[in-house]
Design goal:
Number of strands: 0
Strand content: under 5%
Distance between the termini: 6 Å
Low-confidence stretches: none
Radius of gyration: 18 Å
Order of helices and strands: HHHHHH
Largest sheet: none
Number of helices: 6
Length: 175
């Protein structure tokens, strides 16, 4: 058995690595098979957090008001990642990492739509990313920015899944 970086982390469990890997693959398959980029209940939760972010950041000016939805939407999983890391709960940390990565995919879809503004908006309000990128050269590159954020989201999800699987598979391999 390899020496653990922090002794207070739970002992690795290879079966957990297998189960987590299967769950992650099914989740990613669901994401890839989805046609409209909106993942039902999960994205309804993300939308609720996003809209709350506008209210939370409203007192800090117009830019943070428009950016606040995306900030809070990504900040909530980051807070959970930190919490689960501090309390040494690798499964919670890894699932929160998957959630963070999926939020990046959701945000990427919104960024890529900044010029076309074709996505339906809650209450028919202003398009956050059109407002944020409007008046800059970045608006004409919104699709490329969306692609970059999509790749970042997939990278986050793969990194957290790989970390969890590696942590728990180590018991079997003796690394």
């Amino acid at each position: 058995m390899r020496e653990r970086e922090h002794e207070d982390w739970p002992e690795p469990k290879p079966l957990y690595a297998v189960i987590f890997g299967i769950c992650a693959l099914f989740f990613w398959g669901y994401i890839l098979m989805d046609k409209d980029g909106y993942l039902g209940m999960l994205d309804n939760c993300n939308l609720l957090i996003h809209e709350a972010g506008h209210m939370v950041f409203l007192p800090f000016g117009q830019t943070l008001h428009f950016l606040g939805g995306t900030l809070l939407q990504c900040l909530v999983p980051v807070i959970l990642i930190v919490y689960f890391w501090r309390t040494r709960q690798p499964a919670g940390m890894s699932f929160s990492g998957l959630w963070l990565g999926e939020n990046f995919l959701n945000v990427a879809h919104y960024i890529a739509d900044a010029r076309d503004m074709a996505l339906p908006l809650v209450g028919g309000g202003e398009h956050d990313w059109n407002t944020l990128l409007g008046g800059t050269f970045l608006l004409r590159h919104c699709r490329e920015l969306g692609t970059l954020v999509t790749l970042t989201g997939w990278g986050i999800m793969i990194a957290f899944a790989a970390w969890y699987i590696w942590q728990n598979a180590a018991a079997e391999t003796g690394d």
